[in-house]
Amino acid sequence: MGQQKLNVVLCWHMHQPWYRDGLDGDYRLPWVYLHAMKDYSDMATHLEQHPRMRLVVNFSPVLLEQINDYAHQLQQYLQHNTPFKDRLLNLLAGLTPIPSDVQARSELIEECQRCHAPRMIHPYPCFQRLLTMIGATDSVGIGRKKYKYALEYLSDQYFLDLLTWYHLSWLGQALKLAPAVQTLMNKGSLFNAADRRSLLSIIHACVAGIIPRYRALAERGQIELSMTPYMHPIMPLLEDFHSMNCAQPDAPMPSSAHYPGGTERTHWHMEKGIAFFQQYFGQTPRGVWLSEGAVSDAELALLDKFQINWTATGEGVWRNSCQRSSCTTPENIHNKRALFMPYRQGDNQVRLFFRDDGLSDLIGFKYSTWNATDAVADFVQNLENIRDFLGGDAAQQVVSIILDGENAWEYYPENAYAFLDSLYSSLTHSEVLQLSHFSDLQALPTQHLPNLCAGSWVYGSFSTWIGSPDKNRGWDYLVAAKQAFDTVSAAGTLSAEQQLAAERQLAVCEGSDWFWWFGDYNPADSVSDFEQLYRQQLMRLYDMLGLAVPEQLHVPLSTGNQAGAENAGTMRRNKA
Fold first, then answer.
1. First to last CA, the chain
2. Within a 10 A sphere around the Cβ of 220, how many other Cβ atoms?
3. pLDDT tens digits, residue range 60-82?
4. What's the confidence (pLDDT) of residue 561?
5. 378 Cβ contact partners less than 8 Å away, ≥ 6 residues apart
6. Which helix or strand (DSSP H or E) is residue 7 part of?
7. 114 FRET partner, CA 20 to 30 A, in 3, 35, 86, 366?
8. Domains, the chain
9. In sequence order, what are the beta bridge partners of 215?
């Protein structure tokens, strides 16, 4: 009789918020196309190179929509020389002149340092030399005083070379091995218009191929594709701010106890998300990773209404829920035996899986400093130890490893290429681990969860998005905007087209990422980026409604930690 195999599900969550100013304005931050070039591309390459690897890839529709738009913009540029709605791409293409103003030049140099310098600047001597020659540091915003008086003497070619190297450094490791990219890297400097057009052509082929590549991987059964509600809102908080009370009983709430019409809005985000998912992937998702793994009784019931088979959340939610329930014993909470099984709550049919925080965070935060072989050996050994611990129950349980599929890799050597290659090889050749999709596990017995303590994958609570002064102020602004939207909608003064556009703009404002960044524990530069964009989105909504913009939206609502912190421009989710 063979050994019992342990079910293992690895789930990569791909997400970026809405970075455009309004529905059709310029992109204020470049992270969608930069992560497409580097991470979404490399992640697909690893799967294509390891056809036996099975896992889940979760896409937020708001990301898919922006990837598709960038692919279209790049195509229009290459075919018709059409300007981009992205500042950095226009500068790289030479469609926008290099600024002559010293302040604007300083800001451009800082933008071209927004990456993890030890892995994305230092390995490239030509890139590093461009910065050291003017006394720039590797930390955004710190080196300005050292070089600001020299910037007016720099040639336009200096900035074109800097822009070229910044984009070269953001290419995925597989792309960097391509002959055309090697030619550019070997040239090193004095990149002309043809060189930069060649780079933009490479970027276009990469970005345009992202969605088709993942669709092909799903159609041949290698990956299961799942989704997040449309604009990535924190669904339980839209339903009821009191959802925070179980895990944050003493935290202050926004001025209003409820978000107006929140139940209807959660339905809307699900409906729109499924429609976009079907448009891009040609199928209906069987699973949903609710934004930030944020679950509540109401959201599980909502998933049931949409006939979703599974969802998942963080280990903290499991711990908080089990402390209020008879689902396990204190001993099992300590040894996590009960973590590795699917749950059902109440009469809902949707299966609820819980993330192993320890194993997930090893990949997200620790292994980047390890030798790849040692890291993979440690990870696989941990899984085998769990299998041995579960013994004869191993085949009836599952270890869920869930984390961002884009944010950790720039902290690894060569975009984690060696690590992921070794990880996939080791997992697919294991004799005691069974790689699965969540939808493969419908026959596993489920545990009943009498009481679900609403929360997210972060600490098992909603503290990252609500419960502090700046975050609550952000919700108060959103509540006021929703009330204005409801008033204008009821008056019927908007055309059908205007109403649909305003509703979509409202959805942009409901996204979770704005609230993530509010607070003085976050770096000032990132807080500024996101709080400005949030206020701009709200202003756009008021404009679309034909209403005056409230004065409070002209004042920053959060400033962050002025002392600075590790670069967070790439949306890395740092552990507190």
1. 46
2. 9
3. 999 999 999 999 999 999 999 99
4. 76
5. 362, 367, 370
6. strand 6-14
7. 366
8. 67-210 (no CATH), 469-554 (1.20.1430)
9. none
